[in-house]
Design a protein that fits this description.
heterodimer; A: D-Maltodextrin-Binding Protein, domain 2; 3 domains; four-stranded mixed sheet; 26 helices; 4 strands; about 5% strand; globular; B: alpha/beta; Rossmann fold; six-stranded mixed sheet; four-stranded antiparallel sheet
């Protein structure tokens, strides 16, 4: 890559994009004008409504059990000279005959019906929950009656010669808010701003992303570009840099805008609470600084991912169609900031979009854990790089550049236009992976929390049903896609040996990674414990058998098959394995699961059947279940010859054992095949 | 100076959703173009003209076969040097509407590795030659068709290439615009440059070309001078020769 070329191209692209009004409007107007305006207007409206409510006088009436008007002089309130309704903005009307009708016509906001219940005077508050004023009126009436009740209590206790305060409030209770004023102001902003920031960033990068990819192709300038002595990588890098620049400018404007709103809110709160000087804006500085870095990384990621999507499109219109589902997913994920009890932990820090949403929320409330922030930054950089890599591959394909073949996303096409047969397209697979990931985290997470055991089962079904539905919709060859095919004994035997080797190697990997990330290690075990069902059989079913079917269908079926069609076997296996690792959303388990995934993918690739992989997957999961149920027996049996504590020699023996099993399995799988294998090439 | 041997380009095409067919858009074509000559490529739609020219212009990589470009007895090795030697123009090479002609030429000049003084000198020269002065600083989207055409030509000659590859350059143009291109090709030829171009217009080809290559279904059907082709086809009308070769009704 020639830096001078990239500079020239970058200059050209930037000029081209900046001169497009739509881009500038989206980049500047939305963050700078639109959303401060939105916040200010909504705050003013809220304030106006609240004042209006407090000034409003609510009309009420008092009736007996037969809906006859009771004159105030005849109400029980008179026994205590209780006239304080004016303090509660209430007006008692005494000339309305039919209270039910009056309530429906909103001539009355609420009415009290005094009945006798269990020998006591009982006050029913009648109101319309569907009408705002009636709701408020009912609330006021309730407060008013509560005070009346207190007056009676006081009087009765007084009559008995008792101190009412001592009897009713034997102990004192009060809330003391420990959060500083900064935190209070932050939490007000923090629930809505992340969402707005992400949406605004998406809008800002969307147009340049479309313009530089699909737009350029639609206008026919791409071929002109290709006649110049530049490489595809130079073209895509400069395009990406331009979109990322716009993204970062947009992010910067957003941050400035947010700060502006912050200052406005700060002024509002300080005049409201009269605690000027309680909030020092200087305290915001460190949070903003770290936040800004993460937001920049996220801007880069979102730029790359939108470009990946738009690069497939030939026209502006098509690009818009492709970007709509992406926007929905992004908005949905950014909504997580609104959910109060979701915490930004090491796991969530790896979920794209959601992590940045939560990070900003936490930043604005001055809560942050340096390690988690680092993970958010790292994962955004990682996803950004991955998206750039994919983008580079897309742009290196002549089919895409010259529009000779549509490597599109079939899921968006009408079913009747799709010809039956074949295996999934890459675009569909990426989409299915995203949908499954989000379904697993959001839907799966929710049902696991609610339903426990059956929630886990449901999550697994999601992993099976999403690719299956996609394959059915796009009329794929199900046998080929999901490798439904008999297999020979050598694959099963070899696979079993290999999985035992992989488990051993995986354990070593996990131990090494746990040493680096100690806190997530305990998290991983907690998770496993929570999976335990009523007994070992039910646990084995949900932890070993079901995933062996569902996850295999997804990863060694849909995903690997699609990748095999597009990439070389080695690349296909490696990507599928990494995705399998990512799906387990844990750093500690990533490397070990990716390794297991690699081994299973290899056997699936060789055997062209899903069966050996299912058996391998089952064995792996079953062993961890058994070791959880019978830890002493299991480890005793397995490690009796190693002694209590591991010495270096033991570890070496252990590793050798694993490698030996892997190699033995590998040889069996490859009986009769002279081909150079993908597996050995990696080693 | 340009020599292509046994060029093949295979496309795997998703015909109507996922029924894959692979076919050779260019199927074993060899050709030579020397400095100071204009070579025409004639063929029906879908014959593989565009694909052939894209490969020769280094926009696409051939599936197999070789392309050698020799300038001053030096064989060009890498893609960058090859692209620097070629001026490529086609109906598909549109210009950036939001840039001005000057900005476009400067950008192209930079990418061709020219320095600022050289770029400005070339722009001044081309501007005089193609009469760009009145609109060189206007945005290209504001230009008339004729002006855009001239801007397009200026883009492909900014680096003073030795070889021109034009893919149907006169397609859809009015007489005045297409005449300016024809004039341009003749002028460049007289300056010792080579021109390889494809067209649908027989009369134009007959008038311009030193040699004509007729291709059909990715293969060379016939080649030679206009006279040779007429003799070969036993007809005095080039159009008839062509129709007889590719089968009537296909053009």
């Amino acid at each position: 890559m020639n830096m001078k070329n990239i500079k020239s191209l970058y200059k050209k692209e930037l000029l081209d994009v900046i001169r497009d009004k739509k881009t500038v409007i989206m980049m500047v107007v939305v963050p700078i004008i639109l959303y401060p305006l939105l916040i200010v207007i909504s705050l003013q409206m809220m304030a106006a409504i609240t004042t209006n409510m407090s000034k409003h006088v609510y009309r009420i009436g008092i009736y007996d059990e037969n809906d006859r008007i009771i004159n105030y002089w005849n109400t029980p309130f008179m026994d205590y000279d209780y006239f304080s309704f004016e303090d509660y903005s209430l007006l008692v009307l005494e000339d309305i005959r039919n209270p039910k009708e009056a309530l429906a016509n909103e001539d009355l906001d609420a009415y009290i019906k005094i009945v006798n219940k269990d020998g006591k005077e009982h006050f029913e508050i009648h109101y319309l929950s569907s009408v705002t004023n009636s709701n408020y009126a009912a609330g006021k009436v309730f407060e008013w009656l509560s005070e009346y009740s207190d007056i009676i209590t006081d009087k009765k206790l007084d009559d008995l010669g008792l101190d009412s305060d001592e009897i009713l409030n034997p102990i004192g209770i009060s809330y003391e808010d420990a959060s500083t004023n900064e935190e209070t102001a932050g939490s007000l902003l923090s629930s809505i701003l992340p969402f707005m920031l992400i949406v605004s960033l998406l809008m800002g990068t969307m147009y340049p992303a479309i313009d530089t990819t699909a737009g350029e192709r639609e206008r026919g300038t791409l071929e002109t570009l290709l006649t110049l002595p530049v490489t595809n990588s130079e073209i895509i890098v400069s395009k990406f840099l331009v979109v990322a620049t716009i993204g970062i400018i947009s992010a910067l404007l957003n941050i400035i805008s947010i700060s502006g709103v912050g200052v406005y809110m700060y002024n509002m709160t300080s005049t409201y609470t009269n605690t000027s000087g309680g909030i020092s804006l200087g305290m915001f500085a460190p949070a903003i600084l770290v936040g800004v870095l993460c937001v920049f990384a996220f801007a880069v990621f979102i730029s790359a991912i939108t470009m990946c999507v738009t690069a497939f499109a030939k026209t502006y219109k098509e690009a818009n169609n492709y970007i709509t589902p992406l926007s929905l997913v992004v908005m949905f994920a950014s909504f997580i900031g609104f959910i109060p009890n979701v915490k930004l932990n090491e796991k969530v820090a790896l979920v794209p979009v959601a992590n940045i949403s939560l990070l900003i929320r936490d930043m604005l409330s001055f809560k942050y854990d340096a390690k988690v922030v680092f993970l958010v930054l790292l994962s955004n950089v990682f996803y950004g790089l991955a998206a750039i890599w994919v983008l580079g591959r897309i742009y290196n394909s002549e089919a895409i550049l010259f529009g000779e073949s549509a490597a599109g996303v079939q899921i968006f096409e009408r079913r009747k236009n799709i010809k039956a047969g074949g295996v999934p397209e890459l675009g569909d697979t990426v989409l299915v992976l995203f949908i499954t990931m989000f379904a697993m985290i959001y839907i799966g997470g929710a049902i696991q929390l609610k339903l426990g055991y059956f929630g886990v089962l449901g999550t697994q079904l999601l992993i099976l049903l999403i690719p299956l539905a996609a394959a059915l919709y796009t009329k794929k060859d199900l046998k080929k896609t999901f490798r439904i095919k008999g297999t020979s004994l050598r694959y099963i035997l070899g696979g079993i040996l290999m999985i035992f080797g992989a488990i051993i190697v995986g354990m070593i990997i996990t131990n090494v990674v746990s040493a680096i990330f100690p806190s997530s290690a305990s998290e991983a075990t907690e998770l496993q414990n929570s999976l335990i069902g009523d007994d070992i059989i039910s646990t084995l079913f949900v932890v070993a058998i079901v995933p062996a079917v569902c996850e295999e269908m997804m990863f060694r079926g849909y995903v690997l098959t699609a990748f095999e069609k597009k990439f070389k076997p080695k690349t296909a296996i490696l990507i599928s394995a990494c995705l399998f690792g990512i799906y387990h959303t844990s750093i500690v388990r990533f490397f070990a699961t990716a390794f297991l995934g690699y081994v299973i993918c290899y056997v699936a690739h060789k055997s062209k059947s899903l069966l050996p992989g299912m058996i391998m997957h089952f064995i792996n999961n079953a062993i961890s279940v058994i070791s959880l149920y019978y830890p002493d027996k299991f480890w005793g049996l397995f490690l009796s010859f190693l002694g209590k504590s591991f010495s270096l020699v033991d570890i070496v023996i252990f590793i050798l054992m694993g490698v030996f099993l892997l190699y033995a399995g590998y040889l069996i799988v490859n009986i009769g095949s002279q081909q150079k294998s993908a597996f050995l090439n990696k080693k | 100076m340009l020599e292509a041997n046994n060029l093949v380009k295979t496309f795997v095409r998703n015909e109507k959703h996922n029924v894959k067919t692979s076919f050779n858009a260019v199927d074993d074509i060899s050709l030579k173009v020397k400095l100071g000559e204009i070579v025409g490529i004639i063929g029906p739609n879908g014959a593989g003209k565009t694909t052939l020219l894209r490969m020769l212009g280094s926009l696409m990589k051939p599936t197999s076969g070789s392309i050698d470009i020799t300038i001053d007895d030096k064989k060009l090795k890498n893609e960058t040097d090859i692209k620097k030697a070629i001026g490529y123009l086609s109906g598909n090479t549109r210009l950036y509407g939001r840039l001005s002609t000057r900005e476009l030429l400067t950008m192209a000049g930079n990418l061709y590795g020219m320095d600022e003084i050289e770029i400005n000198r070339r722009i001044a020269m081309i501007s005089k030659l193609l009469k760009l002065d009145s609109f060189i600083d206007n945005r290209i989207e504001k230009l008339s068709t004729g002006q855009t055409q001239r801007a397009s030509i200026s883009r492909c000659i900014i680096h003073n290439p030795k070889l021109y590859i034009f893919d149907e350059p006169t397609l859809g143009l009015d007489i005045i615009s297409s005449n300016s291109i024809v004039e341009f090709m003749l002028r460049e030829k007289s300056e010792g440059k080579a021109v390889l171009y494809s067209t649908h217009y027989m009369e134009e080809a007959e008038k311009l070309c030193d040699r004509i290559i007729m291709i059909n279904k990715g293969k060379i059907a016939a080649e030679g001078t206009v006279g040779e082709l007429k003799e070969f086809g036993k007809s005095n009308d080039l159009r008839e020769v062509f129709s007889n070769l590719v089968g009537r009704g296909e053009d």
